[in-house]
Amino acid sequence: MKDTVGAVALDKHGNLAAATSTGGLAGQHVGRVGDSPLVGAGVYANNETCAISCTGDGECIMRANVAFNVHALVKYKSLNLHDAVVQACQDYKDKITGDRNLIALNKEGNIVFQFETNLMFRGSRKNDEVTYVAIWKEE
Ligand code: ASP
């Protein structure tokens, strides 16, 4: 299995967590380390702001430091989670190309799914609410 699996969570005490697992990219060099295990690049969580797990072109995500950037935009620019995610995925887009996709969750329990690909398998569950599961953009 080479696909990426990411998760973000908020517990009842207000603790945020993020995890990302990936098999990497097709045709990658032996020994390549992608963005997924790099805290701040492909994964990041901070109880002050949000939790982020990325998928996409790892080199691009690493160079743009996407996960930490979402946190920084919330913390230092007071952006809401959605706007921070959109901006972090756009930053340096003219210089650093590649897909940046992510899931994010903030301390208020807001969830953002952001992806540039045609689809992203995703789902969420909040307390006793009905589970959300989707694949395509419009869902
Ligand atoms: N971001 C992962 C990597 O570059 C790949 C993926 O998310 O599909 O290793």
UniProtKB/TrEMBL annotation:
Annotated InterPro entries: Ntn_hydrolases_N, Peptidase_T2
Organism expressing this protein natively: Adhaeribacter terreus
Alphabetical list of SUPFAM superfamilies matching this protein: N-terminal nucleophile aminohydrolases (Ntn hydrolases)
Protein name (database record): Isoaspartyl peptidase/L-asparaginase
Pfam family, one: Asparaginase_2
